[in-house]
Each structure stands twice: as structure tokens, then as C-alpha cells.
Amino acid sequence: AHELRTPLSNLRGYLEAIKDDVLKPDTATINSLYEEATLLTRLVDDLQELALADASELKLNRQTEDISGVIRQAMVSFQSQMIDRGISLIADLPDRLPLCNIDSQRIAQVLHNLINNAVTHTPRDGNITISAKESGNYVEVAVTDTGEGIPAEELPNIFERFYRVDKSRSRRTGGTGLGLTIAKRLVEAHGGKIIVQSEPGKGSRFTFTVPISSD
Ligand code: ADP
Asked: How is the beta sheet containing 203-211 ordered, strand by strand?
């Protein structure tokens, strides 16, 4: 409720000021209103996803899939953003990976959340590498960035809902603080695990596993 209340009270504050002729509804004001409404939409979407996962009602549509394809597709969707930001997106995939038993849309979302975070926290001229390899009954996928990294004392908290390392940045980066919580729930719903390794000033690596198909 607290997380929803802040953007809502910002919206109301602006609208009240316009109503009372304290503020003129110029382009900047409209843009701010729009931003708050967008953040609210994202929050509600993310909260719904999380509520389903908490109630164990998250229905996975699992099929035998080539995870390399899911990875490549996720990378394509970030291509233009990477060019704009001067960041290289690198694929480090073996020629062949075993087929996995996954809900490809959900795993695409996990990749999206991890790549999105990597982009947000990596400066110009940095690299983001997506790698994958077979490991026992699982395929292990890693998203590695050369960004700002995360202090060791923060690492145990970052998968918690609404947790952000730099509280003041949330507004600017537009994050809901739910991306990693959702990624963790989705990976665990598949019977996999997600971990983070990071060194401040050097970068971060998020690694998750998904089960190989037994078909
Ligand atoms: P947000 O919406 O804030 O991105 P997340 O749950 O996705 O929420 O991430 C939680 C916090 O973990 C972020 O606010 C950020 O401080 C930290 N974080 C996540 N990914 C990275 C990364 N690749 N590099 C540095 N910090 C990260």
C-alpha cells in the first residue's frame, strides 16, 4: 500500500494544484503526471504477478524449448537500447544446448528483468554478456555486466520485494523494486535457483538454472 500511495499522492498533488490554479498544466507537468501513471501501472502489473506467485497460482505453461532461442530473442529486444546507451551486448552460447522444460514467456521475463537491471547499472562503453551452459540436469544462464556492482552487505537483500540499494534512484530509473523478486519466484516455480555475485566497481553476475527436459 505504501508503494502505491506515493505515486498516487504525487498524482493527486499535481491534479489538485492544477484544479486550484496553482499550477499551469504545461508540458512538463503533463509529462510528470504521465510518468507517475506509468509507474503505477507497472507496480500494479508486478504486484499482480507476485500475488499469483505467493498464492502458488502461477500457472506455468511448460514445454520442451530451446533456451538459446529465448535468450537470443530477449537480446534482440534490447538491441536498440544498447546502441543508444553505448553498451555492448554479447552472447556467449555453446553451439548446442539441451532442450529445457520451461514456460518460455516466463523465462523471457526473467531475462528481461535481469538484462534491464544490467543496462540500468552499466555505464557507457560497458559490456553485458549472456552466457549459458549445461550443468547436471540443468542449463545455467548468466547475465554478467561490467557496471557499478553491489556492495557485499546489500547482496542478501536485493531479491526482497521493494528493496533498492540506492533508494533515491528509484524514481529516476523507473524501477518498481520488484524485478528481482519476480525473477526469483519465476525461476523457483520452474524448480531452478537464482544467485548473484558482485563486486563494487567491477560488475555483477546473476545466474539462474532451468531444468533440462527429460523427454
Ligand atoms: P528495481 O526496480 O529497483 O530495479 P530490482 O528488484 O530489479 O528492482 O532490483 C533491486 C535492486 O538491486 C536495484 O534497485 C539495484 O539497487 C540492485 N541491482 C539489481 N541488478 C543490479 C545490477 N545488475 N547492478 C547493480 N545493481 C543491481
From this structure: 88-92, 127-135, 138-145, 203-211, 194-199
Is the alpha carbon torsion for 42, 44, 50, 53 positive or negative? negative
Whole-number Å distance between alpha carbons of 215 and 208: 22
Residue 190, all three cell numbers: 520452474
Strands (E), 137-179: 138-145
Q: Which residues line ligand 1 (CB under 6 A)?
A: 113, 117-118, 121, 145, 147-148, 150, 158, 163-166, 170, 175-181, 204
DSSP-derived secondary structure letter, 213: P
- Model pTM? 0.88
H-assigned helices in the chain: 2-19, 27-54, 67-85, 104-120, 170-173, 179-189
Q: What is the largest CA-CA distance in the chain?
A: 67
Per-residue pLDDT of 143-168, as tens digits, reads 999 999 999 999 999 999 888 887 66
What are phi and psi for residue 12, nearest 5 degrees?
-65, -40
